[in-house]
Amino acid sequence: MVGKAAVQIAVDVVDEKEALRIAGIIGSACQSGELPMDRVILEAGTPLIKACGVGIISKMRLAAPQVKLLADMKTADVGRLEASLAYTSGADATTVLALAPRSTIRAVMETAVEMGREVSVDFLGVSLERAEPLLGEVVSTASEAGLPAERLIVSFHRGVDEGAASTEYFEKLASIVSKLREREPRVRVAIAGGLTPDSKRAVEVFFKPDIYVVGRYITAAPSVSRILEFLT
After folding, report:
1. Bridge pairing between strands 68-75 and 188-192
2. Residue 134: pLDDT above 90?
3. Burial of 66: CB neighbours in 10 Å, binned 0-12, 13-18, 19+
4. Can you list the pairs that 209-212 forms with residues at least 24 positions away whose Cβ atoms lie under 8 Å?
5. Separation between Cα atoms, residue 54 and residue 43, nearest integer Å
6. Pairing state of beta strands 40-44 and 93-97?
7. Which residues are bridge partners to 6 per DSSP?
8. Does the model's pTM come out above 0.90?
9. Residue 121: DSSP 8-state
10. CB 117 within 8 A of CB 92
C-alpha cells in the first residue's frame, strides 16, 4: 500500500504530564493544519501504558481527539481482553506480537473486526529469516478472522536493546516487504527502532514504508518541524 507515508509518534515517556503535553502539541498542530491529520498517528507507548495504566489511552484521546491513536499493548496472550481494553479506552489500533500464539493474534483481530478497529502486528524479536513465513501466517490469520487487509499493519521493529539497524538489514528487509506487497498490497508496512531523518533516508534507498514509527527523536524535543522531517 505504497503512497504518502505516515509518521507514528511513539510516546514512550513514563511521565503522564509530559505524555499529555506531547499529545496536546500533536493534536493542536493537526487541528490547525500545520500537520496533515491523515498522515499522523499518535502512539501510547508500552512503557507509558505500564507506568500509567490503560487509562492513559483515554487521556491521550482527549488531548488529541481527532488524531488516530494506537495503543502499543504488545499483546502476547489474552488477546480479546487486551484488545478490548485498548479499543474501549479510545484506541483506533492496538498491537499484538507476531511471536504470540496464532490463537492470540486471531483473537485480537476478531475483536478489531467486531469493534471496527485496526491491528498492528509487531515483529519485534523476529529474525529476518523467520519473518517471511511468519508474515504468511499473519496475512492468512487476518483473512480467517475477517479483518480487511487495509486495517492490518505489519511493523518491523528493532528494539532499543538491539541497537540501530544496519544497511544490510534494510536491504534484506526490502526483499521481504516486496514479496508481502505482491501478495497483499493493501497491508501497510511500518518500520520502527531508533529512527532519525538519516536512518529514514537509509531505509528509502531500498524501499518506502507506509509508516515511520519515531520515538525519542521527536519526543525528546517535540515540535512540528521534527515531525515534518518524516513527512517530506
Report:
1. unpaired
2. yes
3. exposed
4. 209/5, 209/177, 210/1, 210/2, 210/3, 210/5, 210/6, 210/153, 211/5, 211/6, 211/7, 211/8, 211/41, 211/153, 211/155, 212/5, 212/6, 212/7, 212/8
5. 13
6. unpaired
7. 211
8. yes
9. E
10. yes
Q: What would the pLDDT profile of 59-79 be if each residue is shown by its tens digit?
A: 999 999 999 999 999 999 999
- Cα separation of 206 and 173, whole Å? 9
CB atoms within 10 A of CB 204: 13
Each residue's pLDDT tens digit, 177-229: 999 999 999 999 999 988 999 999 999 999 999 999 999 999 999 999 999 99
Neighbours of 22 (CB within 10 A): 20
- Band of pLDDT at residue 163, cut at 50, 70 and 90: low
| Domains assigned to the chain | 6-228 (3.20.20.70)
With cut-offs at 50, 70 and 90, classify the pLDDT of residue 115.
Answer: very high
Residues whose CB falls within 8 Å of the CB of residue 51, separated by 6 or more in sequence, listed in order: 14, 15, 16
CA distance 79 to 103: 8
**Structure-block grid coordinates of residue 16:** 503522564
Give the CB-side neighbour count of residue 139, counting CA atoms within 13 A: 20
DSSP 143-200: HHHT--GGGEEEEEE--GGG-PPPHHHHHHHHHHHHHHHHH-TTSEEEEESS--HHHH
What is the rounded distance in angstroms from the CA atom of residue 67 to the CA atom of residue 135? 28
**28: helix, strand or coil:** helix
Residue 56, burial from CB neighbour count under 10 angstroms (0-12, 13-18, 19+): buried
